[in-house]
Amino acid sequence: MKILLLEDEFDFAQSVSEYLTALGYEVDIASDGIVACDLIANNFYHLFMLDIKVPNVNGFEVIKYIKSLNIQTPIMITTSLTDIDDMAIGYELGCNEYLKKPFELAELKFRVTELMRKYYNVDDKNTIVLHQGFSYNVIKKTLFKGASVVDLSAKETELVGYLSEHANRYVSITELRDVVWDGKEIEEADIRMHVLKIRNKTTKDFISSKRRVGYKIDAKNI
């Protein structure tokens, strides 16, 4: 799962990034708000970790930009600002968590884990708990039925992984082409064939579909 870290203190950003990477997350670092906005416009992230006092465009303005794009990704503010008015601004703009600097890395792990559990049904073993007894491990990139591995091809695994990480919402054909097939002009019938093969290896309604909307995998509440 992918995190954007907006932090202008180089050593601190590297330390946090290395820690999160060791936990299994993919991390992009932005040292100022303009770079962060460019990354947000061109990438999908599962979590935004934003400092407020950064060059060019501050973290509050970055939150406004996120909201202007109607992005629902959770936002964690990490800042040394302790004034209650600053905290109020952050929450009013739509942040989901507020972590004051300095903080222990163990506390960061707890906060990140909790947000991932809440928004993506990911437990502390980096597993997305799906419906019908299935689960998807985002680190191992493996689908399980109970304790048994479901044998999927590489592309089937990518498709299941993307739908699992965006569980409980329909993902459009266009989005699947752009992300799972790297923008290739694959026919919709080919995508349907991959879905059919996955259903044959799981259940007929493991992946649900809605005409002209897309495909969805449901997650179970943890």
Automatic annotation (TrEMBL):
Where would I find the OmpR/PhoB-type domain in this sequence?
A: 125-219
Residue positions where 4-aspartylphosphate is found in the record: D51
- Give one Pfam family, short name only: Trans_reg_C
Q: Which residues bind DNA?
A: 125-219
SUPFAM superfamilies, per the entry = C-terminal effector domain of the bipartite response regulators, CheY-like
- Give start-end of the signal peptide: none
Alphabetically sorted, this entry's keywords are:
DNA-binding, Phosphoprotein, Transcription, Transcription regulation, Two-component regulatory system
Domain Response regulatory stretches: 2-116
What PANTHER family would the database entry show? Answer: DNA-BINDING DUAL MASTER TRANSCRIPTIONAL REGULATOR RPAA, REGULATOR OF RPOS
Name listed for the protein in its UniProt record: Transcriptional regulatory protein CusR
